């Protein structure tokens, strides 16, 4: 029986891995050649070169295990999605968003793509342990306010989409700022205050999101015109924008932050009422208070959570 060389087996496997990963054929072999030339220049001893040779050929051995997960996540061709990773400058957040838009459910219907884009909310919230599920909760709170105000079904669908993506601009904010345990300095606040601008810039580039991009990016505006990033007065803010502002503040105060614990429900409602007519729309505050008084159940991701439970929860 002919003997089988380990190097031949690994070479064949590396070729198969190139196919799985969507890499140009011969990628592993070329990487191996480059690595061995570097080893020669560095004058590595023979035993280390031997280990390096096999390691280079098998460096992508784990790639096949994530193929199904990538396909499930993006709803498309996992090889195309993997190949696209090499075509983006990942230092730029616009490139990251462009990648997601290109490879998410590329052959799906508008409804299917919108459903898949709901994952973007999870991506944004997952950036920091202290924003985990924030967008989901804001959407649930906003829907409760909308129900009290008897908004139409169409308006509520639009509101939910805007709520889920209102903080997508935070992808531009470094985690060292988002997770800072102490008070932010002025420079750091300047960076944080840019995130609604980037929310608008991102959403406005996607036709199906552009119609609510302005409202989604207005969640830090105030009725008295002293908010950010535009500083526009209340008459320039839609009903959707006003609801998002109240829902965002309610959740932000109710949940733990790196620099403080979650506030009790009565304190949260007190702060909202203090800002009634200056910071927040009076009708929106009244609707939120009514929902809380009724023990309205908020339903992020189908999980029944009462207002009191959200106020008591951390991240």
The average pLDDT is 79
CATH class descriptor name of the largest domain: Mainly Alpha
Spans where pLDDT lies below 50 across 5 or more residues: 300-315
- CATH architecture label name of the largest domain: Orthogonal Bundle
Number of strands: 2
Sequence of strands across the biggest β-sheet: 1-2
Major β-sheet annotation: 2 strands, antiparallel
- Kindly identify the CATH topology of the largest domain: Hypothetical protein af1432
Q: What Rg, in angstroms, do the CA atoms define?
A: 25 Å
Secondary-structure element order, N to C? HHHHHHHHHHHHHHHHHEEH
Task: Classify the helix fraction into a percent range.
Answer: 55-70%
Structural class: mainly alpha
* CATH homology superfamily name of the largest domain: Hypothetical protein af1432
Number of domains: 2
Sum up the overall morphology in one term. elongated
Fraction of residues in β-strands: under 5%
Question: What is the count of DSSP helices, taking H or I runs of 4+ residues?
Answer: 18
Kindly, what is the distance between the CA atoms of the first and last residues, rounded to a whole number of angstroms?
63 Å
What is the compact description of this entry?
This protein has helices at residues 6-21, 27-42, 46-57, 67-74, 78-85, 93-103, 110-126, 134-148, 153-164, 175-178, 186-192, 195-203, 207-210, 213-216, 239-254, 265-274, 282-293, 307-312; strands at 297-298, 305-306. The protein is built from 18 helices and 2 strands.
